[in-house]
Specification:
By secondary structure, the chain is of the alpha/beta class. It has 3 domains: about 220 residues, 3-Layer(aba) Sandwich (Rossmann fold); about 80 residues, Tyrosyl-Transfer RNA Synthetase (Orthogonal Bundle); about 70 residues, RNA-binding S4 domain (Structural Genomics Hypothetical 15.5 Kd Protein In mrcA-pckA Intergenic Region, Chain A). Helix content is about 45%, strand content about 15%. It contains 18 helices and 15 strands. Helix 3 links the parallel strand 2 and strand 3. The longest helix has 18 residues. The chain starts with a helix and ends with a strand. The structure holds one RNA strand.
Length: about 400
RNA sequence: GGAGGGGUGGCCGAGCGGUCAAAGGCAGCAGACUGUAAAUCUGCCGGCGUCAGCCUACGUUGGUUCGAAUCCAACCCCCUCCA
């Protein structure tokens, strides 16, 4: 078993997939001030719950005395990570990347404490060193240490080649630059550990190898398992889109609901991975059976929402859930739709976003799925006279208010 | 460069002159049962509509035809085999 609190905690909570050198890492983590980083692409205006697995690694590191480094890939996003893709990703414009970067960074402040103190997290952007890189000096200093043979064996490259899918030289360089990032962070910030999802293993190892050859000998790597739900889907990808961390991409209510609707079988695992609740509390919650387990889901939703969106957001969502589901009222946190009364049900449904089209609204009315203030509405010509709670099915609700 | 095969709705995949808004599966939505869970069963699943109909869709652009996802031509892209 591990001696350091950090690794003990990660192991107990299910965060560890692979380690490059367990003993060395354990020793490094036992001393205070271990610096570790995770890199994030700026491909979207917000990170999503799929990124939470590694964000939690940084959080746990800080909780146990380490120094988290958030690396924003302002430079590498201009290239595009080929891992897990069969075709080149659409190249993003610099303006988009800059906007995404600005938007992404806000989310981290909820999970980590930033500052100038010894245990404070810092945020860096690899554009700072990548953008100005001069090709010939770079090739002479680093290129000679990078083995093409080895790179060709990397999954991200090999799979593309085996399937005879195109791989541009641009993308081929992604791992080179990610490897170089690690060396740069080791030099600038004394960073010894790179963490990431299991798909990043190859890239992480490349960085460690490069470090060994250019005078940063003791770099380490750690990956988290790919988190899937009990029914086998990648976590955080719903049909309606990703579950975003940023409030302007996904309202607090929906974020809370995402966690509240966790599969029974995932509750214990998610409590360990995505909340700070202590082990004995989690053990108590996951032992609940039947309808009782809903209490554990509420605890999960509250803890996860409080961490990402703040205590107040969690409280409001919980209160709204109670009002909406237990009392059949309309809680404050429900999405609001502004309409002019009297309004036809069909228009109200589309305005509230409960139906994607008028046709769908009509179909749902015919199916008996629509209720207004709790009463089933089936007539597509019905008009609603004033404010109230419009529901589609039992789960989706909106408050109609006068425009 | 040569010879074949193929590009169909979010995905997979049938259709190969009218009866095609296009079989089937997956995903999704809703109903029943429940616990805002899972499983199961049922219905729905391009848009608009006073439900008759209209519009948009089968790689792209033209053409043949009363009529084309289906035939022809050119172009773009993908796959297999040969050089």
């Amino acid at each position: 078993m591990y001696r350091s609190d950090f690794l003990q905690s990660l192991a107990a909570r299910g965060h560890i997939h692979q380690l490059t050198d367990a003993e060395a890492l354990d020793a490094a983590a036992a001393a205070p001030g271990l610096a570790a980083y995770v890199g994030y692409d700026c491909t979207a205006p917000s990170l999503h719950v799929g990124n939470l697995a590694t964000i939690m690694l940084l959080r746990r590191l800080q909780q146990h005395g380490g120094r988290p480094i958030v690396l924003l890939g302002g430079g590498t996003t201009r290239i595009g990570d080929p891992s897990g893709k069969d075709s080149q990703r659409q190249l993003l414009g610099d303006a988009t990347i800059a906007a995404n970067k600005a938007s992404i960074r806000t989310a981290f402040e909820r999970f980590l404490r930033f500052g100038d103190g010894p245990g404070d997290a810092i945020m860096v952007d690899n554009a700072d060193w990548l953008d100005g890189l001069a090709l010939i000096p770079f090739l002479r200093d680093y290129g000679r240490h990078l083995s093409v043979n080895r790179m060709l064996a990397q999954d991200s490259v090999r799979l593309r080649l085996e399937r005879e899918q195109p791989l541009s030289f641009l993308e081929f360089n992604y791992m080179v630059l990610q490897a170089y990032d690690f060396v740069e962070l080791a030099r600038r910030h004394g960073c010894r550990l790179q963490m990431g999802g299991s798909d990043q293993w190859g890239n992480i190892v490349q960085g460690i190898e490069l470090g060994r050859r250019v005078g940063c000998p003791d770099l380490l790597g750690l990956t988290t398992p790919l988190i899937t739900t009990a029914d086998g889907a990648k976590m955080g990808k719903t049909a309606r889109g990703a579950v975003w961390l940023n409030r302007d991409q996904l309202p607090d209510w929906d974020y809370w609901q995402f966690w509240r609707n966790t599969d029974d079988r995932d509750v214990g695992r998610f409590l360990r991975l995505f909340t700070d609740l202590p082990e004995d509390e989690i053990r108590r919650l996951e032992r609940l059976e039947g309808a009782e387990i809903n209490a554990a889901k509420v605890a999960l939703a509250n803890a996860a929402t409080a961490m990402c969106r703040g205590e107040e957001a969690a409280r409001q969502a919980e209160a709204t859930a109670r009002a909406t589901f237990a009392e059949g009222a309309a809680g404050d946190a429900l999405p609001e739709a502004r309409v002019h009364f009297p309004v036809g049900v069909v228009d109200a449904l589309t305005a509230a976003g409960l139906a994607a089209s008028r046709g769908e609204a009509r179909r749902k009315l015919a199916e008996g799925a629509v209720r207004f203030d709790g009463d089933v509405v089936t007539d597509p010509d019905a008009r609603l006279a004033g404010p109230g709670r419009l529901s589609l099915g039992r789960k989706r609700h909106a408050r109609l208010v006068a425009a």
